[in-house]
Each structure stands twice: as C-alpha cells, then as structure tokens.
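Hello again,

I reread your note about wanting to compare the complex against the isolated chains. To keep things tidy I'm splitting this into two emails, and this first one only covers the full assembly. Below are the input lines as submitted, including protein chains and any nucleic acid or small-molecule components. They are followed by the predicted structure of everything together. The single-chain runs will come separately.
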Amino acid sequence: MPNPTAAMLVIGDEILSGRTRDANMHHLAQAFTKHGIDLKEVRVISDDADAIVGAINALRAAYDMVVTSGGIGPTHDDITADCVARAFGVPIDVRDDARALLQAHYDRQGSEFNQARQRMARIPDGAVLIDNPVSIAPGFSMENVHVMAGVPTVFQAMVASLLPSLTGGAPILSQSLRIERGEGEIASPLGDLAARYPELSFGSYPFQHNGVYGANIVIRGTDGAQIDHAMAELSQLFPA
Amino acid sequence: MPNPTAAMLVIGDEILSGRTRDANMHHLAQAFTKHGIDLKEVRVISDDADAIVGAINALRAAYDMVVTSGGIGPTHDDITADCVARAFGVPIDVRDDARALLQAHYDRQGSEFNQARQRMARIPDGAVLIDNPVSIAPGFSMENVHVMAGVPTVFQAMVASLLPSLTGGAPILSQSLRIERGEGEIASPLGDLAARYPELSFGSYPFQHNGVYGANIVIRGTDGAQIDHAMAELSQLFPA
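Full-complex prediction:
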C-alpha cells in the first residue's frame, strides 16, 4: 500500500518578503519522512483570505492531509482559522473548550484574557483541538486539515502532539554516496542503474565547494534490502 | 501602478524529504523585494513531470512572472526543461547556441562533451538563454517563465543575470519595531493603527527567546514618508 500523501501550506508575508527564512517546512519534511507520510507539495502564500481559502480547498482535495503553519495568533493579520471555516463552509466562533484552556492560562499568569486573546479561541465548528504545551493557544484539525502556529517552537510542539494520531506508512529510508566527479560523467551509468530499480528513487544533488565539485547520490525507498543492493552496485560503478 | 507579481516553483525531492533546506526561496524573496517585484507564492513540488507541467501552467497564468529552480542538470532526474516545453506546447531539442557555449567550456576543461552533458543544451523552441557565469550551462526564459538551476551559487548567478531585464516597480520598504509585550496586549491598538493606514501592511511576528517574549512589528509599503509617520505613531503607542 502506498504511503499517505500530504501537503503543507505556509501562511506568511514575512517569508515571501525575505524578512524571515522558513524553518517549519524543513522540520515537517523530516518528521513526515520518518513517520512514513509522503510530503508531496509545499505552498507559501501571503496573508490574503482568498488565497488562503483557495489553497486549502485545492490541497485538501489533492492530498490525504494538509498541514498549515502561521496566522493563528491574536493580531489583525491572524486570519487562518476564519479562512479554514470559510473553506469548509462551517461557522466559527469562540469555543468553550478553547476559551477554558486560555482563561486558565492567563489566570495563572495574572494577565487579562482580553478580546484580542479571545480570538485565539475561535475554532471552526466540528474541529478537534491540537495540544500546544508551549504557549497553550491550541491548533486544530478540521477533517484532514491540521492548523498550526507559525512560531517554530510552537509549530514543532504541535507536530509532536498531532503525529501519533496520523496513520503513517512505511518509513522512507535513504542512503547516500558522495561522488567527486562531475554529474555529466556519472549521469549515464546512474540513469541505467536507476532504470533497473523502478521502486527506488535516485536523486543526484550536485555540489561545488572550495573548488571541489561532484554530486551526492541519494537512493530512497521503503525496502531497506533493495536499497542495500542498489547502493552496493552504485559503489562498484564509482569507486572512491 | 501596482508592482508586478511573481511566483516561484522549487523543483526538488530533496527538500520535500527533509534532506536539504531550501536556500533559493529566501534569496529570490530578498532580491525581488529590492527590485519592486511582489513575490506572492512559492510552490515546492517533487521531480514529477505531471506535477511540474501543471504547476507551471497554473502559475504562469496567475502571476506576471514565474521563476523555477532545480532540475536542469545532466542526470535522469533533470526533467524541468522538457516539462517547460510540454507546458508551452513547443518542441525541445539540443540548440546550437547552448551547445556552442558548453562545447567551448568542456574543450577548455579538456573534458568530454558527452551525451549526458548535451542534455544541458536542450532548450525549448523560442526560449532566450540566461547567462550562467559559474558553471556555463545556461538557464532560459520562455515567455514569462524563467528557468534556473537549483545549486544555490548557480541560482544566485542566474538571478543576477536575469534581474536587469525584468521591469520592477517601486522597491518595497519596511521598518520594524521590537516590542517586548505579549501579542495579546498589543493586538487591539495595533489593529486600529493598521486600519488607519490602508496602503501599508502591518505584520506582527511573535518571538520567544530565553524567557523573553514579544513581537516584531513590521510596517511595509512603497511610500517611505507614510511608513515614517506610521512608525512614529507605533512607537508612541508602545514606548520602550
């Protein structure tokens, strides 16, 4: 059975403007690869309601699951939860379970649970909360769409909360070989080898560093023994 | 006149598997912001021909221009040029101008210009070459789609080659203020301020670091005087 497929939607002007370098994509990619979920696509879009609604609906139809990051805080530019409700055509309002979590948190802190903070308790009807042990304000899952915060420490905590509930497949294994020759020299025998292992994927990632150039060849798949075989053949083709 | 819009398409299994952290998105975002081009969307997809063709056609219709990165080397997994030709419905073959560049390069190196390397001279009919001073194999522009290499040093060189030929708009300026208070405390006055400057964008980016928390407020726009005004008001609202 093939592994479940996933897409990620990163919501954030700060990445598209070059102010911030995204970190959540890389974290999710590694977590999903270990868990046996194939991350097939990532989209980064701006804080624009129509763009967010459109992307959620396109991705949830095309993949088994979608993870979003960003836009669920208390400020005016945090519009993700409302966009998810619109995408699913369900109402959204402050929900008692989320409000109770946040009320208790701000009571402990001695801070006011004001109207802006109550925005973080707005949850679309029918969604299931995702635990946030870092800063309490929850994420949520609406059917196959999992909505998480953009702050990396919070995003990572939410991924850890969610992951055990997601059905994964076989972990995707990989081995790599560094070859200090130009890609143009190895391309032909590499292509022939890849053609003989149709269930594995062979990637060639060229590098140039301090005058040394070559390529890292990465063989990926779910059958460890087959990867071992292919890697042995690869090493014979290109001895160090 | 609004700035031209752009999308980026990153082609690479290595990013979706978590093996590599993308660097080209961040570089292009910064270069475009300075040049007055609004990067509105980035998609990362795998080395899959149907996915690449579909994304190119969706993005080139939706935005003024598209930049792709990755998949134009000599190995079997380098399929971007063929996908661009398919997306535009034009033939593709080894082209004389690209072949001459590469032939001269490998002659100088004393390397064989073999069949795999000739793949890098495959250019869709009607495309214009993009200069690659780092490793010679050219990128190309097909109408509003600009096709570049994935290796960061080469990608950056191609962006530098291309940028002077792209019509930009007003550079997008920004100023930011670090406020060491919870977003929930600043959200309401910040939202009111943002509503009074509809031509500017106000972003709130929370941080938590060594027990200190707060938010960086970024004000963006093309009118520097207006940003100055808004920033002065913001500083008065939240004195250090």
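For quick reference: The mean pLDDT of chain A is 94.

B.
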